Amino acid sequence: MTAISHSTHTKAVLLFASTMTVMSGAIISPALPGIGRFYADAPQVLIQLILTLPALMITLFSPLMGYLADRFGRKPLLMMMLSVYGLAGASGFLIDDVNLLLASRALMGVAVAGILSISTTLVGDYFSGAERVRFLGLQSSAMALGGVIFINLGGLLSDWSWRGPFLLYLTGVLLLPYALLVLREPSRVTGESAAHQAPFARLDLGRTALAYLIAMISMMMFYLFPAQLPFLLAEQGVESGLAIGAALSMAALTASLVSFCYGRIKAHLSVMSVYVLGFSVAAAGLFITGAAHGYAMAVIGAAVAGLGLGLFMPNTTTWLMRITPERVRGRVFGGFTSTFFFGQFISPIVVSGISPWLDSLREVYLAMGLLCVTLAVVVAVLGRTLLKADSAL
């Protein structure tokens, strides 16, 4: 392999690995009615946990995966996690006992924690400067687009059998030999220039915590669409599974498109400015969805919200890579993965908590839009005061 072709193969592995992760829990969403019928005697909470348990395990185990990657190396751990992802995920195709199925989902969640933490860490190890910024946008785009593809494939396979979507997890095993051949273990000293490393020789806990918080909130907002939009559409009389699936895919599709363009957007805006833009556009989409009285407007709202929310992951990873010393990069991105998926896990909990104070799901979307407007103002103020230095990043 030439140097250029090897770089292309490396990027392909990282993109495929990242694509499998973010919507890994939602792959089986279309099969939930069938799962519920098969396990009709099981408590409803267990059926719900089949969907949400992986996100909880990702939240709990991502920091550990980051530490292990820093301690024992990226490549060996990634190979192990790809194997576990494929085998534990696909085992649902064969399992008849609900408790055993939950155990396999928990193990699959641990694997996702490792895959996403290590894949993002390797981006920082392998690339720098403008190439890194472009690839982070491409990575986020691939993850969002993968969500569109995998959810629709899961829907197609669920028409055959509720067990069908579990076969999609075999992608982890299929990727393993390619990753084993292509990836190299990074050296402990990367190619970052001293000029980039010097200003951030120590981990900035305050900025890192803020980046984590924004990641959590953005994922909480994003998950409003796969978790709540079907119920909002049902209130409006939409019953077609195909129509609901298309609406669910819209936010992920537009998020993919804007993430793909992140490198060009970042060339003209600072990290703080991108956050302000993201919160503002997301607010507009949430307002449109909350005000919608028909299917078309709800879909437009989801699409607009996706344009804003698609900026957050590449922007946060870009920021973290600039302010994180190489020696603790694995741990920091393990924490990032944890908070990112914690936002997914708490999204329905937050909605359940505020719903008694509101009259309908429409008002939930409107309230979240107001929250986004508030956060846009807060970040804009921080960018001009306490985080003024980050406005140059």
Automatic annotation (TrEMBL):
The chain crosses the membrane at residues 12-33, 45-65, 77-95, 101-123, 135-154, 166-183, 209-229, 241-262, 269-288, 294-312, 332-358, 364-387. It is found in: Cell membrane. Keywords: Cell membrane, Membrane, Transmembrane, Transmembrane helix. Residues 10-387 form the Major facilitator superfamily (MFS) profile domain. CDD domains: MFS_arabinose_efflux_permease_like. Its main location: membrane. It holds the Pfam family MFS_1. It is a multi-pass membrane protein. This is MFS transporter. It comes from Vreelandella malpeensis. The lineage of its organism: Bacteria, Pseudomonadati, Pseudomonadota, Gammaproteobacteria, Oceanospirillales.
